[in-house]
Input
Amino acid sequence: MQVTIIGFGTMGQAIAKALSDYAGAVKVFGIDKHNLHDNVSAKNIQKSDFLILAIKPQDAKEALKQVKISLNKKTILISIMAGVSIKKLVALSGQKRIIRMMPNLGLSVGEGIAFWKASGLSLPEVKKAKNLINKITENFETKNEDAINKVTAISGSGPAYFFLLADCLIKTSQSLGFTQDESRKLVGKTLKASALLSKEADYSELIKKIASKGGTTEAALKVFRKKNIARLVEEAVFSAYRRAQELNNA
Output
């Protein structure tokens, strides 16, 4: 199985890394979006069983214009671009075998999650695609394409939300007098432990275990609730969801 990845940035490299465990079964070629014109790139695109588009949605039109010249009609095109619909991918590429997928950066450390939808594939081709996607990340197939826009706002962008919280905690830790190194370790270990602990119970139950009545954690949680953190998170996620929908018209 030959897989060519166009766009060898953060996500392109993460997918390549996830597939590296299958070196005997999967040949992976990474192509920078600026090198689509050369003969080596053209040959790899033509020979590919799967062509993965790991580029920004704003680059879709120009990249697919170049790819279209070399694309084999039997190749299955997988797009991980936020917001770009299957209909638009067909129009730009001239390809009928399309998979639209939204993975996240967690796949680079074996903790990825993705939703995907196939279009124009036969049953054997869907089975072949599932086999490949299973090698890349944990995943769900969906029949509703808009679900991919919603997933983009939750798990696709999600790691950045946690990194933002971590960054805020580190800065607050430093304002309390801890060094940058001490703050980084305090927050990093806390986040890692929280992720592991979350496997044991529901989040609401875990909060109750930590927040004793009249204690320090309860005092902090009261501030979050007073500021309506739940509504803030909802507004942020829906903003990302709407942007994913808008990107199809960019």
Q: What stands out?
A: The first strand starts at residue 2 and ends at 6. The chain has a mean pLDDT of 94.
